[in-house]
Amino acid sequence: MKAVAAPQAGLRSIPALLARNATQMGNRPAYREKEFGIWQSWTWAQAQDEIRALALGFLALGLNRGDHVAIVGRNRPAHYWAMVAAQMCGAVPVPLYQDAVATEMAYVLRHSQARFVVCGDQEQVDKIIEAEEGDDTVEQIIYTDKRGMRKYDHSRMNWLSDVQAEGRAAHQRFEDELDARIAELDYDSTCVMLYTSGTTGKPKGVVLSNRNVIETARASSEFDRLQPTEEVLAYLPMAWVGDFIFSVGQAYWTGFCVNCPEGPHTMMTDLREIGPTYFFAPPRVFEGQLTSVMIRMEDAGRLKKWLFDHYMKLARRVGVALTDGKPVGALDRLRYGLGNLLVFGPLKNTLGYSRIRVGYTAGEAIGPEIFDFYRSLGINLKQLYGQTEATVFITQQPDGEVRADTVGVPSPGVEVRIAENGEVFYRSPGTFVEYYQNPESTASTKDAEGWVATGDAGFFEEASGHLRIIDRAKDVGRMADGSMFAPKYVENKLKFYPNILEAVVLGNGRDYCTAFINIDLTAVGNWAERNNIAYASYQELAGHPRVYEMIRSHIEEVNESVAQDPMLSGCQIHRFLVLHKELDADDGEMTRTRKVKRGVIAEKFADLIEGLYDGSDSVYTETEVTYEDGRKGVLKATVRIEDARTLATPAQRMAAE
Question: Which residues form the AMP-dependent synthetase/ligase domain (predicted)?
């Protein structure tokens, strides 16, 4: 069965696509969910029945046109059904980050004026109750998992299955009304409202229309020739635009199956069981998996370790060329085939990547070494560049034109231009409608002609026509000597090392660059165990002299690489420290999508930054932290600061000659 290749009359809303799928491919799987260790499956026809029942139940509870329905919880078919059911009723789904704390939820609930909230479980219900204190906007709370909910006040709470049962029982009363509301939906009706991560301020509600979602889903599906036979794993936050376009937009346009894991703790097992053919992950997922692989190899037997090192050396030399379909000698092909049998194939199977036909990473730049590692295994991993405001896609990498240092060419239907100051602008059918109740920000981001400022600095390569993103425009600066400062470029190189979880490079306007390092507790803890190094906490391990030696060696290797870049060689790291705590979204240091909030870090760790630049060899600091139960505390530490070896830049070498 081939994917639908062009817009069809009447397919101008997500509910319309659902009706088409139920009619044309009703027996094909639409959703799977693993619960209690068992996979359950729903066809498109069954999914339509579940969604209509929920929509009728919403009407019975009084959901009005234009209402906002907040949805918070893990990836589950029922939560995707709630999004589409809300749309059927003429309401607007507003997914929230499930790991958000109550205060973050409170802002979104108040800003969106959500009347209905669909919660995954008791934990999310508790956060909603805490978040709405002093505000009576939320009128109905619907929960998916009823465990622990028996003693709650049910005057405005209902189990989702009961809402569906009520909808089925009341179908004669509400069916005509529901059909009328579905018929009212068109390309300009709001499809979803997604909140930005809030890197530089309060999150903004990005309003996306059916036109934005469906046109983007159609164009991107055709770009990668997606079929109804694809399998995807829905494990990323539902509040993130990437999950919405993959698990709703493209899934409903193309008709492929969305698989929901049992939970974060089973994700890797579920990934292997499903074996997705179409897969997306942000760089941190690929970084984490590579870290796990390297840890296992360090603990492997001598023969296994030798085989891995031997064939990975071959893969690094010819694997990427083979993946791109470029010519490779017969002997190398034979040796690579043997490596695939002994190493690459089993490794891909362990990762759950054996069947991937198209893989993407985005969200932030990925280290070229990490990117090439996966492609050398024969995985068709590509990069895309996008934003919530673009309904994801701005640029994509066509097959055969995949490189680690670019983000591809403009996606179908997307126009991209570079402003005089280097900032990237785009316009497309996916360009968002507005920021909800924020006309000033809308006007400053999107001009009258539809061009959107991305906030990123980049340029097009003349030879290939590919876009290269340097960094966030606001983060790109100049060193005191006038050389370019682009922290993300160096940070991504550092994060290639499994021992480094996060890095923050400083240096704008300074004489030299410095860095904060977060170690990866799993990787470094495993290393410490092998080397008989005892530790009782993250803080103690982070401050160990041998950990500093290891991190220094990584930084000096990165400096050697950075020194070869004529444009960014001034970004070598001269001094560094290993932070006494992990950067955490709960402490406001990162967004929920794990983007570093540089302004917050500069303010919160000002004493450590001063120490990096005044020649100190240690700094005593006290840092407020948030514990898992929400309590606040103070972490006290004396943080060591050490120097790293740097190399002469190309300009310095030329001057010396």
Answer: 19-436
- Among 52-56, 71-75, 475-479, whose mean pLDDT is lowest? 475-479
> pLDDT tens digit string along 491-535?
888 987 888 999 999 999 999 999 999 999 988 998 998 889 999
β-strand pairing of 618-626 with 500-506:
unpaired
Angle at 452 between CA 466 and CA 422, to 5 degrees: 50
Is pLDDT at 404 greater than 70 in this prediction? yes
For the question of whether the overall pTM of this predicted structure is more than 0.85, the answer is no
Contact 105, 600 (CB under 8 A): no
What superfamily would CATH give domain 477-656?
ANL, C-terminal domain (3.30.300.30)
The CATH class given to the 283-472 domain equals alpha beta
- pLDDT value of position 654: 65
pLDDT digits (tens, 9 = 90+) for 473-497: 777 788 898 888 888 888 888 987 8
Q: Is the fold of 16-185+230-276 the same as that of 283-472? A: yes
Query: Can you state the percent helix, strand and coil of the chain, rounding each to 5?
Result: 40, 20, 35
Q: Which residues contact 334 (CB under 8 A, 6 or more apart)?
A: none
- For residue 139, the tally of other CB atoms under 10 A from its CB is 14
- Which residues, in sequence order, are CB contacts of 589 under 8 Å at separation 6+? 583, 596, 597, 600, 601, 604
Report whether CATH 3.40.50.10860 matches the domain 16-185+230-276: no
The helix or strand, by DSSP H or E, that contains position 116, with its residue range, turns out to be: strand 116-119
